Amino acid sequence: MQQQYEGYKDLADSLKSASALLNLERKSQLHQDITTICNHLVNPSFRIAVFGPFNHGKSTLLNAMLGNRTLPIDLIPTTGASITVKYGSDVRSRIMLVNGTEIYRNGTEVLQQFAILDGNRQMRKDVASVEVFCPHPFLETGVEFLDLPGTNDRDEQDNLVREQLLSADLVIQLLDARKLMTLGERENLRDWLLDRGIKTVIFVANFLNLLEPDEQKQVQNRLLFVAESFRAELPPGFSNLYRVDALPALRARLKGDVAAANSSGLAAFETALQNIVGILQPNRGSVRLPRVEVIASQIQLSLKAKIDPIAIEIKSFDDKQNSKIEIKQKAADLIYKGFATSVGELRDWLALPKLLTKYQADAAVALAENNFKNWQTNTIKKDLTELQLAVVKWLYQAYEFFQEERPQDLLIPFPSEPQVILPPKPSNTDDLSEPGSIAVGGGIGWLLGGPVGAAVVGSISYLLNKNIQKQDEQLAKESYHQEVAKLCITAVEDYLSSFSSQGLSILDEYEQKVDKVICFEVSQEPLEVTNKRENLQQLQKSFNHLLRELEKVKILSNYQPYKEIPKSNNTKRKYSPQPKRVQTSPEKDIGVKQQQENTVKNTETRVKSVSSPPPKASPSPRKEEVEAKFRDWELNEEIARMKAEMRQTGKQQNTTQSNKAPNQPKSQIEKDKITRAYSILGLQTNASLAEVKQAYRTLVKKWHPDLFVNQPQLQKQAQEKMHLVNDAYTILSEQ
Description:
alpha/beta; nine-stranded mixed sheet; two-stranded antiparallel sheet; 11 strands
């Protein structure tokens, strides 16, 4: 039993907590009902209330049952307070005033002062409670009687009675047989009892002895109808209708007249009442919980009325914020992807083996021809600038999108122009008989003149392509112009090695600064939203806790628990994408010394064979270069779309699909254009937009004009094809 009451205490605390969040007016009916039922849930006594309109003999009936004038009816014209009768060793009264004053008196005479209506038939406003203690064996079993003020007199009294009925485990509704079930009684039966889960009700008819025998029979039939129409929840085998002539019963008890007490109906009623209480008292929860269920339902409904609008508002705010953040995250990730790819391409380009492969021959020839500065400006610098811009453009994309730190330009300087110190000329400088000494250009006048200079240029190509097995043999056979050519090659190698080392170092430092540019700040939410979120969390938590407590006492609910809204991380924080770096060629990690070992200086690794200096015309672009261009185009297009989404997000959409103007019917010409567009892309006419985009990507990669730079006829066809493809894509993406 103690464990059961602990459970009721938790339930009562949950009801009180929920009530506090509702900010109910103290005088509101729901607030008073919650207070009453919570106090009653933890009350170990079994309370019996006597209820009915004023002047129906309620106090007289209680005095008859107690066997004395515990409630002095002669002195109290109308009960003006709720009087609780409890067990005590002797008769005494306790009055609690609103200001906390406690008044103890022997007997019940003090009730005249505090428990009656005043001259204006008003209850005293300074009285909080009235208790009477009485040495009755029935009360000693843990039973309390509650003598309520009469109803149908004043609203204030009716409100008190209605409130106190919730704290009664059993209600004795006293009826006046002379005016049975008035309109007010029928309304109270429905509104005050049935609708509030109070169904342990016994009807007691008074004043039946004042009627003629024929009238008594008619009234008894009507009483039976009333009792049968009210579905009382009493133990099986017990009636919910009794007759007690209250005043004759009291007189019989005061005189000790057992026969008169029996004829008044009091003895039969008392016996039935004690047996009913004996069954209900051990399981008071079955009586009290139906009232809790009704009140809890009202609390839940009130909580939902507060929760749902706030939840909708918070969800709308979160959806908009999350949408913005998600778009920014995707944009940041895409930009970082483009940046990392471009950095990877630049790093790969700066790798010494790649530089040697691509530029060493041209650079050595330019050096031999005294044309190195022009070569540097028009060739390697042009390529570097393009690659550097490809890297930096992503940071400017980020700055435009996020408006964080303005990016710095990536500047990789070139080393000083290589210098060659000529060895002494041998006497046979006119000997041009060695293999590979073929003139391919003008002389290196600043080094050597005439045909020997031309031979040096030819030897550069020879030395970079000839596979010499043994360095000793090479040194033995080298002629003067081959020695000079080798000096040019070595000077260019040193130049490119220094350029590679410094460039990679600068690029690494540049990458470290990217987090300050490709990032965005998630700002704090407005204080108003934070306060609403916290309020919502409290309401949802209280609602769910109440559901759990109701479930513990087997009260089923029509409501489902809320998925409690998470707490907001209401601090400023930055988001920076940190995906893995794009994989670059392994030469990046080899190290300068080992790279140099793989060059011409050690004669172990040679560049790809060429018979003469590379042609000046631009070679046809590789397929992967076109792929890179197309990849950048796709990323740029995606970022532009996200910018548009960012502008759209947060705007109120005041129009719905239903009130938009219907699409105008397409003309036959437009239909033909659409059909032809599908055909150009190689699709069925019912293809989705995703299929259209995929087909467009495939065709662009296949027919990009840059793939046919050195094939004029095919390039022209590709341009015409791409014109058709672009038009088709535009038509289908806009319909």
